[in-house]
Amino acid sequence: MSDYQRAIHVLLTIVRKAWLQLVASSSPRAGDRCIDKESSMNRCDPQELIEEREQRLYETARRRLHTTIDRMFGGLMVLQWFLGMGLALFITPLTWIGGIAELHIHVWAAVVLGGIISSLPVYLVCFHPAATHTRHTIAVAQALWSALLIHLTGGRIETHFHVFGSLAFLAFYRDWRVLITASAVVAIDHFLRGVWWPQSVFGVVLASPYRWIEHAAWVVFEDIFLVASCVWGQREMREAARRQAQLEVTNATIEQQIAQRTEDLRRATEALEKANANLQQEADKLAATNTSLEKEIRQREKAERERMAAQQQLLEASRAAGMAEMATGVLHNVGNVLNSVNVSVEILLDQVGQSQLGNLEKAVDLLNAHRDDLAHFFTVDPRGPKWIEFLNRLKDRLNYEQSSWKAELVALSENVGHIKEIVAMQQNYARAGSVRTTVELPKLIDDAIKSMGSHFAEQGIELVRELDPLPPITSDKNKLLQILINLLSNARDAVKESDRVDKAINVSLHCSGHEMAVIEVSDNGIGIAKDKLTQIFRYGFTTKKKGHGFGLHSCALAAKELGGELTVHSEGPGKGATFRLKIPLFDGTSHQTLSADSKSSNDAAIAPAVTAEGAALPNITAATIDS
Amino acid sequence: MKRQVRLIVLLGLYVLWGSSIVWGVSRVLNYSFSGDYPTESSPDAVGEMATSTADFHVLVFVHPKCPCSMATIDNLGRLLPRCPANYAVTAIVFVPEGKDKEWATETATFAALERLPHTRIEFDTGGTRIRQWNVRRSGHVIVKAPDGSVAFSGGITLERGHAGESLGTVSMMRVLMQQSPPARAVPVFGCTFSLDSL
Fold first, then answer.
1. Between A119, A137, A206, which is nearest B167 by CB?
2. Average pLDDT, whole number, for chain A?
3. Are B70 and B162 members of one domain?
4. How far off is chain A from B195, nearest CA to CA, in Å?
5. pLDDT: is A109 or A203 the higher one?
6. Rounded distance between C-alpha atoms, residue A583 and residue A471, angstroms
7. Which runs of E-coded beta strand occur in A51-122?
8. Cβ-based neighbour number of residue A625 at 10 Å
9. Does residue B37 lie in a domain region?
10. Residues 153..212 of A with a Cβ closer than 8 Å to B: which?
11. Same-domain pairing of B100 and B51
12. Residues A505, A579: contact at Cβ < 8 Å?
């Protein structure tokens, strides 16, 4: 292959590449493809996003750079055109043919050829900015301008610097291919002129056919550095694009995260507001509930006060009932005594009515009638001798009457004394209020029994006392007496209702430990069903037909007030019952909680009067002591 | 389709642009290389030069308004001072018939001629000397050897108005240095004197 054929082959190759670049530059830009892909960026991972964004930024920056440089070259093309025309007009304005001057061909070349060279680049800058073929065309035009300016300046070697300046300027594109294009044009120019007009470049004789290569080599020498500069510039642009892409993606990620966090925060705020609203509603409801509760509390406090008042009234009523019971007993006893008094009085009246005082009066009248003849009367009168018998009989009668009257009067006096004692005892225990005094429990039990009068014996009830000698205690005698009378009365009623013949009531007193005194009232009466044991102290509960249900209730309350407790034990109906009253031996335990007796806590038949402080009063049951 | 049309239009523009450039360049090159080989000078003229005392006599024919001749003058001004030979330079300045010397002296070309060292300027009104030497274009250089022969005749520029090394410069310098020149006759690129007698 000859040198020319090789050169033509190279030229065809360059043309083919230029055509491919032209076609490629007319196709959609890579940046546009990136823009098209932007819609799918959401599907990419961050690295892919960065790469795509980097490519897009790089293409954008490059396009902006190319557009800017295109515009600069567009202006330069116009400037070079005017420069060429100026140079031609200044240096070679006219050409002479003898004495005739004509416009120099350089002027025409500057105007026409320079205009042609600049026209297409300017057109492409205006209508195809940043296109690949635009800058390659500019490169070609700039190389042509170098050749034209060199020609217009008469081949001044200084003008050759336009070539190197143009290459440096073209390097602004940061596209080394443009340098190759411009350099190729320069080389081709030299080559072609070396072939067809060798004298225009090197001289026909002296220059070697390959001298254009030497010229081109210097261009290549500059191109090496310019290409390196372009490559570095592209790397810098790509690096800047990568950094910006990373920054943008990072910012976008952060913004997305911020948006997500903001959305989450907004949702959380909404949820919080909703929760607050619900909480407010709950608070309102709670406030309403509180109001209701306060109202209810006030109502309950009021009810409690009313209950306490009622309780107090109940206690008073119970105490009054006890006193009534006691008064009933007293009156009953007084009535019984009064019966005896009445009988004694009637006997005395009968005896007085049957007295021989009338006969004595008749005898005295008879004697008065015979005062004057007493002798006669005693001797003669038949009635005289009877006087002795009469007087004996009168003596016997009067003796009898005296003894009878004396006995009746003694009994009457005893009965009156008995009444006095009953009244005195009643006065002693009938004082209202709670007064803690020294109490001798055995005497108190005796007093309670005495208050019951002779009912037990008269009704065939055997009353057995088993009283241990205990030291005196400090307590409320009235309440203790009230409790004992109630218990005795209930025992009496229970025994009376029983069909047993051996009716008996046992009253015992003993110690429980070192602190409590225990008074037990046991009977063998009708007993208490187990299911009623738990209700026996409840207020209003009674097994009696005429009962009111507050006797035992008040007793249990009184026992609590005394610091003790009242419990009941029964084996069942017909098997009697035992009420156990525990009283503190020493003062200061008045507020002890009442509970079932420890000895009987496992006994199902024993019912506690009070199981807890708070629930004490409502749970207190009572067996009536109604009578 | 629209893109193809645009491509075709663009391609047409390129073809038009390229062909226009080729046409323009060819025109410029044709003009630039529009030169003539020197013709033989008349013996009278050569004999006249032989009376000079210098070994070599350099004649340069200049149209004072020819811008292309500036390159010839530049080459002479650059080369002759470095030539060790004994030479004399005579610049034949053409003055058309009916024109005075001021017509020739008010040009940059004449000013450049005046700056040439050891140069005698001779106005050739009506082109008598030019006809005598049978010179057709401005910038023609003739070197007369000590023996009176014409050792070199032609242009010393690559083309019209282009200074620098050329076949003419090399040949002229070798003749002046009494060496064998690559060419004794080189085309002259410059404005024509266009004398009727030529």
1. A206
2. 77
3. yes
4. 7
5. A109
6. 12
7. 94-97, 100-103
8. 30
9. no
10. 154-157, 193, 197, 199-201, 203-206
11. yes
12. no
